[in-house]
Amino acid sequence: MLEDQPLMSERKHLFGFNASLRYDFPAGVVVFLVAVPLSLGIALASGAPLFSGLIAGIIGGLVVSGLSGSSLGISGPAAGIAIIAHAAIQSLGFEAFLLSVVIAGFIQVTMGRLGAGIVGYYFPSAVISGMLTGIGIIIFLKQIPHAFGYDADYEGDISFTQSDQFTTASELVHMLDFISPGAVIISLASLTILLLWESPFIKQYRFTQWIHGALAAILTGVAFNQLLLGWFPELALSGNHLVSLPEVDRAVELIAYLTLPDFSQITNPSVYTTGFTLAMVASLETLLCVKAVDKLDPYKRVTPNNRELKAQGIGNICSGLLGGIPIAQVIVRSSANILSGGRTKASAFIHGALLLTAVISIPGLLNTIPLASLAAVLLVIGCQMADLRRFITMYRTGIYQFIPFAATVLGLIFTDMLTGIAIGMSIALFFILLENLKVGFYLHQEQKANKHFITLSENVSFLNKANILQLLDQLPENSEVVIDATSSKYIDFDVYEIIQNFKIEAERKNIHLVIENLRGYGVLEPVQRVHPLDKESQQSLTPADVLEILKAGNQRFVYNLKANRNQLEQINETVEGQFPFAIILSCIDSRTSAELIFDQGLGDIFSVRIAGNVINNDILGSMEFACKLAGSKLIVVLGHSHCGAIKGACADAKLDHLTGLLDKIRPAVDSVKNGRLARISNPDDSLVEQVAERNVEIMVKQIRQQSPLLNAMANSGEIGIIGAMYNIENGKVSFFE
């Protein structure tokens, strides 16, 4: 528990209200300033009253933020729904359309309760990256005309074909006929402030923690325009070049702008058709934005999709009842929130509260903000979203990731958001199916003693994303987690990225994470895994079989190879019992670990170690247990070259209790000196080596002589008793056949 205290303190430091407010408040102000013209512009594009866009923005901030599980997502009017809304308002009328919005909200709540949010986990990472980059490019291109003073296209439009009959590309040429010197001056001044605000010289002052560069840029734009009004009125901006917020003289007059749904249309089938369409499109746009926001989140938090659908549904119910247009989580405002340093959902609430306050108290003041100044802010946000380094990163991940990414970017730029996403999804799905058609996939997970073992299968595609994300999200704090990819032959990049991101989440949750054999992504070379023997397998072995297993293991060791073993898994597999196939008596020399020399794992062998690998009654008792009760089939007495104990015996060393131990080796010393060599001895070997080998032979003989039980089992063929020598110079083991 004491180890958890620093972690809890760190979380409080990062995400506590007091600690986060200095980040969330400036971010909320920036989002508010961006949201005002976007809300008005999308309401205009929808053919709805301007105030309905503001209502939707206020509901998105004050209502949805409290219900949502997204830390950084911002909800409000969505440009992707504007075309559908415009057609529906034209055919149904605005009051009947509001009823459709309420119905859409109920459908979204139902979808969330039924778990439909799982669809969001199936969006490929390449498509989401393409969406972020594509929208960043679109924001940049769309704001260039506003920066030059041409404001015919509404703020918030992200479609290639515009409502003014021009396209994103042709608008850049057409605007040259309508350049406003005052707008150019204001946008340049605002851009200058934005760039200076990020310089070390300005950052050293504490006021920059509370006044964001975007706010300073907009205030600069307002000040410049007021100066132009006083000194050069012909250059000053007015009319549709400024924010056009509907003015309310008193708070009570706000009620007059609220429009109730036409409940008399409750039996109109068209109302339900429109409601279903709005629910599907708003949900899809929300889930796409959720995935993109989670990708941008520096703390890699995961938004619960079903909770988000329910929150958006309640938001649309409230918006429709109060006269607002449909709501979704929107990427432009969410990106502005993240790039402005927001940390928690408090920034979303702050932006909603500021919208409500501005509508009631200071609409006239907001109407002095030049769109050229806002364009400067959005130009910077667009550049940050369209980070060119993302192209390089996606290219390096491989063609299967880069082509869907590039297709999504181009589709967004030259069509609209939903069409661009559909293009990217189609191409990504084609590449994924090429690999997923080869073999099946599954995910195995088990839990024992607060340890979670997650085993990935042979083929792990993006179709596994939902299960893996949900599983990782549900892992408890302070637990131990093992992710084993040893058996995997193919791992999709999306899954690989999820596991890499989970490393950050694991640190935040104080999860001890072990990742085994996650060898990258794409097609992987298989790794064979070895398991401990069970009782049936042990009993089926003969002493000769066991000898061959040890020989093969030593050969792998000599060639620096290793059978694949998951030691944590073997602990789990042997907890109920052990069935070793051999017992090996070796020296305590640090270079002669039997498990390493024979490449064996937990549960494979009994290992007995004593200086000089000598026999005593306790060791004989251990051998009798191993063979008669535990079922081992082979006893190996393992000596080794350059043995210190043998050297001591040859030199007749005396040292307290060691003297008695070395006396057990004296028969081997005397035998060699009398001309009796071991069967594998080389006459040219030194005395120490010859004694070491002869000592092994004598110990094998003593086992038979001093243990009638083991001798009888050996004579009947139940077990084998054999000697061996390990050469510490080359790693080879020579058995006394």
Care to describe what's here?
With 737 residues, this protein is an alpha/beta fold. 57% of the residues lie in helices and 9% in strands. It has 31 helices and 14 strands. The strands form four sheets. It has a five-stranded mixed beta sheet, sandwiched between helices. The longest helix is centred in the first third of the chain and has 30 residues, at 17-46.
Concise summary:
The chain has 737 residues and is an alpha/beta fold.
Question: Which tags fit this structure?
Answer:
737 residues, 5-stranded mixed β-sheet, alpha/beta, elongated, single chain, 14 strands, disordered N terminus
Euclidean distance between termini CA atoms? 57 Å
Note the beta-strand portion. Answer: 5-15%
Major beta sheet summary: 5 strands, mixed
Oligomeric grouping of the chains: single chain
Q: Mean of the pLDDT scores?
A: 88
Low-confidence stretches: 1-10
Helical fraction equals 55-70%
> In what order do the strands lie side by side in the largest sheet?
11-10-12-13-14
> Which geometry do the CA atoms define?
elongated
SSE layout and pairing:
Layout: H1 4-15, H2 17-46, H3 50-67, E1 74-77, H4 79-92, H5 94-113, H6 125-147, H7 168-174, H8 181-197, H9 200-203, H10 213-231, H11 269-296, H12 305-322, E2 327-330, H13 331-339, H14 346-361, H15 363-366, H16 371-385, H17 389-397, H18 399-414, H19 417-436, E3 443-448, E4 451-456, E5 459-460, H20 465-474, E6 480-484, E7 490-491, H21 493-508, E8 512-516, E9 522-523, H22 535-540, H23 543-558, H24 567-573, E10 582-586, H25 594-597, E11 605-609, H26 617-629, E12 634-640, H27 644-650, H28 656-663, H29 666-673, H30 687-706, H31 708-715, E13 720-726, E14 733-735
Parallel strand pairs: 4-6, 5-7, 6-8, 10-11, 10-12, 12-13
Antiparallel strand pairs: 1-2, 3-4, 7-9, 13-14
Helix pairs in contact: 1-2, 2-3, 2-4, 2-13, 2-14, 3-12, 3-14, 4-5, 4-11, 5-11, 5-12, 6-7, 6-11, 6-16, 6-18, 6-19, 8-10, 8-16, 10-16, 11-12, 11-13, 17-18, 18-19, 20-21, 29-30, 30-31
